[in-house]
Amino acid sequence: MACRGAGRRRSLHPLLPCALLFLLAACADPARERFEKAEKDLQNRRMEEALGGFRSIAREFPQSRYAPAALLRQGELYGAYYRNFPAALEAYDSLVFNYPRAPEAARALLRTAEVHLFQYLDPAAAASSLTRLAKDHPRFEGMDEALFLLARAYGAARDGERQAAAIEELMRRYPESSRAGEGRWMLAYALLGQRRYAEADREFRKLLYLSADGKSAAQARWGIAQSLEGMGDVAGALSQYEALRGEWEDPEYIEGKIERLRKRMRKP
């Protein structure tokens, strides 16, 4: 009996490698392998091979979890490298349409907005994509970037009210983001451009208080001077321009401003 049992164990042993191979084959993920190869091609600047690999994944493995990521990479390659923006938008649209809840869909909407705003100069289409992003993906990790881009789109569309609302939301929700700091400057200049001088003065004074270097302090002080001049406070504007002596990159401009304001103050 013992010998017969030992013989049975020996007869089963040769089957184990076959079973292991079967299990490995069952666990293999061709979409993953192709995605990783395309990523490696991309890192090694083999752009044609990378693009071909990414394109094939969504076509041959549409149910794979790598399909949305492959479409995103495809769009980014078309846009950033090949400068083929219609093809980039087609890839992004396919991603959003076929995988609306995938994490990559939010990034595709952001990239779509960038193409519309910076390449096609279509702020309305950009704002539409970003509004959808905020609605469908409220927890998107790049929402501060999306809000900043939305503010730029509204600014390009000359919609000051919505631009200010987007910037204020950005500063409220992401106060530590570098985009929030950029947004504060955008808001101040936008208010100045809209001749809302009192509000612009308030924002530039905040920037002066928050300034961490001489250049940003000078820019904030210039904004205060412009705002005060717009409100008709000649003496206040003159004081700010005088404080900019030796700080502004164009000293002749500052001296000209000072001289003109002094002449206005001397007039009866």
Explain what you see.
The chain has 268 residues and is mainly α. Among the domains are: 30-99, Serine Threonine Protein Phosphatase 5, Tetratricopeptide repeat (Alpha Horseshoe), CATH 1.25.40; 212-268, no CATH class. It is 80% helix and 0% strand. The protein has 15 helices and no strands. The chain is elongated, with a radius of gyration of 30 Å.
Order of helices and strands: HHHHHHHHHHHHHHH
* Largest sheet geometry: none
Class inferred from helices and paired strands: mainly alpha
Helix content: over 70%
* Beta strands, count: 0
Summarize the structure.
The protein is mostly helical and 268 residues long. It has helices spanning 2-12, 15-27, 30-43, 47-60, 67-81, 85-98, 103-119, 123-136, 143-156, 160-173, 178-193, 197-210, 214-231, 234-243, 251-266. It contains 15 helices and no strands.
